[in-house]
Amino acid sequence: MYTTQAWAKAAADSDFKKIDIQRNLCGEEDVTFAVKYCGICHSDVHVAEDHLKPVRSTNYPCVPGHELAGLVTEVGTKVTAYKVGDMVGVGCISDSCLACPTCNTGNEHACQAGMTGTYNGETKHGHIATDKSWTFGGYSNSQTVHQRFIIKIPPGFPLEAAGPVFCAGITMFSPLKEWGAHRGGLRVGIVGIGGLGQMGVQLARAMGNTVTAISTSPNKKAVAKEIGADTFVVSTDPESMRAAAMSCDLILNTVSVSHELGTYLPLLAMRGTIVQLGVAMNAHAVYQLPLMMRKLRVTGSTIGGMLETQECIDFCHRHKIVPRIKLVTADALLDIYKMLNSKNDSVVRNVLDIEASK
Ligand SMILES: NC(=O)c1ccc[n+]([C@@H]2O[C@H](COP(=O)([O-])OP(=O)(O)OC[C@H]3O[C@@H](n4cnc5c(N)ncnc54)[C@H](OP(=O)(O)O)[C@@H]3O)[C@@H](O)[C@H]2O)c1
Ligand SMILES: [Zn+2]
Ligand SMILES: [Zn+2]
Q: Which residues are close to ligand 3, an ion, with C-beta < 5 A?
């Protein structure tokens, strides 16, 4: 084990404090890198504040962060794909069994033995360890993972903006591919223009689709259009919603709080699909007549496997898609969490600058 510094919460309602944590040394199949930046995902808030308690409660200390980007400092003897100094990242997955059919087809996030999340994940597969029985995330100076969970950042891609591709980006990229938007020509709606939503707009547009940004925040219209939305709909304005009725073939819904799924169904065209992506803990009441009349589908999706995550950043690089970010330091974490809880009111992903926070 080696010791490194991290920013942790000691309890759901505590502030972040700098603490020492321990990580496994760099084994023969591992890559260690200095974390330079880590995106602040809304999921960090859900976990660090124990919002998922009925499903999976949070262990403390909790070091969140699953949008890591940094520079390799050490590689194991069996690692040939990476060398010291390379730009690399880690997303939401830090371990899985690497043996089940799901892992073997590049879907480590759906490992049949349960994947290990980058933070608050059970260290049960043996490729990653800390001094506790759970993982510590990227609000930290250094990370070590098995090479399978490393993503190569294409040379030239801005390091500070790479992390958000590994959660926000892939979470949108995967369902866009799954429901056919990668071939272009669909009318894609993105609900919630926050961290995930801004990536959804940019990716859907670059794939050749017509994009509708659907938001509760009229102030986001100009930026949404600038990053690729053809149409901007204010979901709280009945007139705006009526004008957009049945105008989407596919909707990716990123709303981060309990909400009415039925609000968005009128926007779906015949055979339309809505993909639920936010960690909303409420059960949805859905009227089935619209589902019947227009053969609508309600489904969900979560992140993506390692191959698809690599594909996602390579796609972003090719299409010059760069997440809109704001660099922040660790002393701002609590305020950012408060803002995300009330509503991400700007079209940016906050990114923790590790060097500047030290
Ligand atoms: N499925 C997955 O694999 C996955 C991966 C990452 C994150 N997530 C989850 O996805 C959600 C979004 O994450 P994020 O990082 O993009 O969060 P975010 O930056 O906070 O964006 C969420 C957006 O939801 C909209 N919103 C907030 N409150 C709302 C309300 N009361 N009614 C309607 N819309 C509301 C806002 O957009 P407008 O201002 O435009 O309305 C806000 O910007 C979170 O729950 C997160 O945990 C899931
Ligand atoms: Zn995330
Ligand atoms: Zn597996």
A: 96-97, 100, 103, 111
Contact in structure between 196 and 347 (CB atoms under 8 Å): no
* pTM greater than 0.90 (yes/no): yes
46-64 pLDDT per residue, tens: 999 999 988 889 999 999 9
Quote the DSSP letter at residue 26.
-
Helix (H/G/I), strand (E/B), else coil: 87:
strand
Rounded distance, CA 328 to CA 222, Å? 24
116 alpha carbon, closest ligand: 3
Q: How many domains does the chain have?
A: 2
Identity of residue 140 = S
How many Å apart are CA 21 and CA 335, to the nearest integer? 24
pLDDT above 90 (res 85): yes
- Give distance in angstroms: CA of 242 to centre of ligand 2: 32
- Tokens read off for 252: 């990716």
Say if residue 180 is exposed, middle or buried (CB neighbours under 10 Å; 0-12, 13-18, 19+).
middle
Residues 200 and 331 both lie in one domain: no
Query: How far is ligand 3, taken at its centre, from the CA of residue 109, in Å?
Result: 8
Whether 355 and 36 have beta carbons less than 8 Å apart is answered as yes
Q: Which residue is it, tokens 């065209």? A: 269
Residue 192's SS3 state is coil
Domain with 180 in it: 169-300
Which CATH number belongs to the domain containing residue 277 in this structure? 3.40.50.720
Q: Is 196 in the pocket of ligand 1 (CB under 6 A)?
A: yes
